[in-house]
Amino acid sequence: MLTRISIAVFVCMICISSASAADSLFGVAVYPGAKYDQNRTKLLEKNPSYQGAAYRTSDNIEKVTTFYKKQGLVFLKLGSPSKESARFKKLDGNVDVVVQNPWKDAQTGATMTDTLILIIKEKNKEKE
After folding, report:
1. Is residue 106 part of a domain?
2. If 26 and its partner were Cys, which of 18, 43, 95, 120 is the partner (CB 3.0–4.6 Å)?
């Protein structure tokens, strides 16, 4: 009986720590309710210079950008003053957050209408 309780406690602790790890990446909060996108993350992993993860949400881009502005990240513009994309930077740690809606699926070429969130960090880059 004690062994079963110990195993149950161990499994619960693993689940709790996994849930916390999913709440942030490189010290940047993952947008609440955003779902991890394994296919987009695999595409990111193919780039030898970056590491990171992709997430998707049905929330509009304004709501997502408001969330990241409140996180204390530096807001950067991407190209034109478009409401379709936004970029944020976490200076301590050199982490970027890119938010897009709509966005084009690189694999299918389809235009997607949910909001894509990329949290990326350069690999092996020393803090300057």
Report:
1. yes
2. 95
- Assess if residue 127 is contained within a domain: no
Give the span between the Cα atoms of 56 and 11, in whole angstroms.
28
Q: State how many domains the chain has.
A: 1
Confidence check: pLDDT of 116 > 50 = yes
What type of residue sits at position 123? K
In a domain, 107, yes or no: yes
Phi, psi of 44 (to 5 degrees): -60, -40
Taking alpha carbons only, the member of 78, 21, 82, 32 closest to residue 55 is 32
The boundaries of the domain holding residue 102 are 2-122
